[in-house]
Write a structure and sequence with these properties.
Helices cover about 55% and strands about 15% of the residues. It is of the alpha/beta class. A 5-stranded parallel sheet has the order 2-3-1-4-5, sandwiched between helices.
Length: about 180
Amino acid sequence: MENSRSDILLIGMPMSGKSTIGKALSEKIKYTFNDMDNIIEDKYKRTASNIFETLGEEQYRLYERECLEDFSGRDKLILSTGGGAINDKSIEISLSFKYRIWLQASIEELIKRYVDDEKERPLLYNTNNMEVVLTDLYRTRETFYMNCSNIVMNTSSKTINQITDELITKIDELN
């Protein structure tokens, strides 16, 4: 994976594995891992849910775009985005990352992961029908993910190690 620049952007739905895979991949290839939501929370001294509640989703998306701009073009960096970070206002800057990996998982898998991790995500969805919410979000975001990514990886029914090994192979194939 030797290149003049080798930044990696991880995109996909909430619970598709962006943070988990990003951390594991960074350990294997010795890149710096950054989580967009954590960066925004640290920078603005507020939780993501508080920003959404008080300033609105549009403001949060602006913060995400700033984060993409700040981290684009860095060498040996992995940036895990929020699920909605790739949109009509950010797609252009997203394309400046060398490797843009779309982590996919079925809606059923996303729901299972949410149930398994609900204590960590209590404010993620305020709904009685998560399947409908996730399906609607996916339909809204799928085109952006597709147009942004140059690597697609299904994360359902695979171990973290299998996913990271497959990603390293796919990255090497692009070189």
